[in-house]
Amino acid sequence: MREADRFVLLSAAQDAGEITELRCQVRFVLAPAVDIGEKRKKPALRYFADFVYVVVKTGAYGEAGQTIVEDSKGCQTRAYRDRKHLMKTVHGITIREV
């Protein structure tokens, strides 16, 4: 599903009271920035989730009170798979792919 289509669907679910706190392009830091030498720095490794929201009513979106992290992926690149793994390892968050 395309990201724009998913946003429309989630916005409607929020208006209906099924979910709340819908946020887009939420940043998660997977590893901090690192100094790698004289005046050189490797930037922090980050993952940007397409959507994050909290489920209000148990149903199609999950269980009430559950925070959901979603990504609309057409294809999974190696970089995405690595970040997905780190999200689970570092933050204990499983990304829901739609």
Structure description:
This protein has 98 residues and is α+β, with helices and mostly antiparallel strands. It has one domain (3-97). It is 28% helix and 39% strand. The protein is built from two helices and six strands. It has helices at 3-15, 78-91; strands spanning 19-31, 34-37, 40-42, 45-55, 67-71, 96-97. A four-stranded mixed sheet has the order 1-4-5-6. A two-stranded antiparallel ribbon has the order 2-3. The protein is elongated. The N and C termini lie close together (6 Å). It holds the Pfam family DUF1064. InterPro entries: DUF1064.
Strand content: 35-45%
The span between the termini is 6 Å
In total, the number of domains comes to: 1
- Structural shape: elongated
Q: Structural class, please?
A: alpha+beta
- The total of helices stands at 2
In helices, the fraction of residues equals 25-40%
The overall pLDDT, averaged over residues, is 95
Q: What is the count of β-strands?
A: 6
Helix/strand order: HEEEEEHE
Largest sheet: 4 strands, mixed
pLDDT under 50 segments (min length 5)?
none
Reading side by side through the largest sheet, how are the strands ordered?
1-4-5-6
Radius of gyration, whole Å: 16 Å
Which descriptors would you attach to this protein?
alpha+beta; 28% helix; 98 residues; DUF1064; two-stranded antiparallel ribbon
Secondary structure: elements and pairs:
Blueprint: H1 3-15, E1 19-31, E2 34-37, E3 40-42, E4 45-55, E5 67-71, H2 78-91, E6 96-97
Parallel strand pairs: 5-6
Antiparallel strand pairs: 1-4, 2-3, 4-5
InterPro entries: DUF1064
Pfam families: DUF1064
